[in-house]
């Protein structure tokens, strides 16, 4: 889901802990009915992480298909210098006139089922349906999505968690952010950005090493600060990668981790929130107490069962309720996955034929 699945080695499995009293308050009025697990034995999880499913377009300004253009040589980072891990991270920007939202974030991809780009009107229509969220996460700069999504978000006083999907054309790819929010008078309005992410699961997918990614984050911070952006800069990866590579947290302004209980065959939807919250706490502990945001978490409503983790509409509803309950006291630290079904995606052996069906607000 524009990311690699957080598949677990046996050594990575972490036992759940009971949520504290504050987390026992339901965000919804009533827990939805659950679909009971089948008697089918859990699917064994291989001892590997699966590469991310790339968006249909490579992050280039001309929007050439990822299979149809030649990528430039990858960015070669220099030796990593450790930042000051004790400095206070910058807070996300906020609009002074922002109306009350749910405070949760939600992820979004601006692609049609035939893998073509949505235009401004179509993106506007999509965000009209999800304006109750405080911010929206997007993954790349292809399809001119930084511009179309920020334009649509302003209509609802939402912020945008933007990013570059990988290090193709890095650091030149960073110019897209400022260009997308430049006003007619030439002034850049950086305040629309909640966060800028440098890569999505690059280490988990085997695309780059942790050292390469950490150095790229440092480079991005230098470039973006010089351009006038003062908000958070992070790299997003799976929770297991963050536990194994705390340097990714150290170089980011906060830890940004994707975490889905569905890919643990022992998990039930009603425990999805406690599961994600536990991983967030583990990452923070590993990173010396640094704040952790869960940048993806959800549950599919269709597909094949992963042991006791079963896709269904009822189970998705229960999982989302659980996530909202567990993060009710820290809503700004949860991005729900995902706004709408992503019918442009393909399934593989690790996605349980559920890749297209994680949309919380239905299909398009």
From TrEMBL:
The keyword Hydrolase applies. It comes from the Eukaryota. Keywords: Hydrolase. One of its GO terms (biological process) is cell wall organization. Residues 35-109 are annotated as: Disordered. GO terms for cellular component: cell surface; extracellular region; fungal-type cell wall. Its main location: other. Transmembrane segments: none annotated. Residues 60-70 have a biased composition (Polar residues). It is found in: Cell envelope. GO terms for molecular function: glucan endo-1,3-beta-D-glucosidase activity. Belongs to the glycosyl hydrolase 17 family. This is Cell wall glucanase (Scw4), putative. It comes from Penicillium digitatum (strain PHI26 / CECT 20796).
């Amino acid at each position: 889901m524009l990311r690699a699945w957080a598949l677990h080695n046996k050594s990575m499995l972490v036992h759940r802990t009971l949520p504290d009293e504050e987390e026992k308050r339901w965000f919804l009025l009533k827990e939805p009915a659950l679909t009971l697990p089948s008697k089918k034995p859990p699917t064994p999880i291989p001892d590997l992480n699966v590469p991310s499913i790339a968006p249909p377009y490579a992050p280039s300004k001309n929007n050439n298909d990822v299979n149809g253009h030649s990528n430039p040589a990858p960015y070669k980072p220099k030796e990593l210098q450790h930042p000051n891990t004790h400095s206070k991270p910058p807070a996300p920007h906020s609009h002074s006139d922002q109306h009350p939202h749910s405070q949760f974030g939600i992820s979004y991809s601006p692609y049609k089922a035939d893998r073509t780009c949505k235009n401004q009107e179509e993106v506007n229509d999509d965000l009209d349906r999800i304006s109750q969220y405080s911010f929206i996460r997007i993954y790349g700069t292809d399809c001119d999505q930084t511009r179309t999504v920020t334009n649509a978000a302003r209509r609802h006083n939402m912020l945008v968690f933007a990013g570059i999907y990988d290090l193709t054309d890095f650091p030149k790819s960073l110019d897209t952010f400022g260009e997308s929010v430049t006003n007619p008078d030439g002034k850049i309005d950086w305040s629309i950005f909640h966060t800028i992410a440098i890569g999505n699961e690059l280490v988990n997918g085997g695309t780059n090493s942790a050292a390469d990614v950490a150095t790229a984050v440092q480079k991005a911070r230098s470039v973006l600060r010089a351009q006038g952006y003062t908000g958070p800069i992070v790299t997003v990866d799976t929770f297991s990668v963050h536990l194994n590579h705390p340097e990714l947290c150290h170089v980011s302004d906060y830890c940004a981790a994707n975490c889905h209980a569905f890919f643990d065959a022992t998990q039930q939807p009603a425990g999805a929130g406690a599961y994600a919250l536990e991983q967030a706490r583990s990452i923070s502990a590993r990173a010396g107490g640094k704040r952790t945001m869960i940048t993806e978490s959800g549950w599919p409503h269709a597909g094949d069962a992963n042991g006791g983790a079963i896709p269904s509409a009822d189970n998705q509803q229960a999982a989302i309720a659980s996530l909202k309950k567990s993060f009710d006291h820290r809503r700004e630290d949860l991005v729900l996955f995902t706004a709408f079904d992503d019918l442009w995606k393909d399934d593989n052996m690790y996605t349980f034929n559920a890749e297209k069906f994680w949309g919380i607000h239905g299909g398009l």
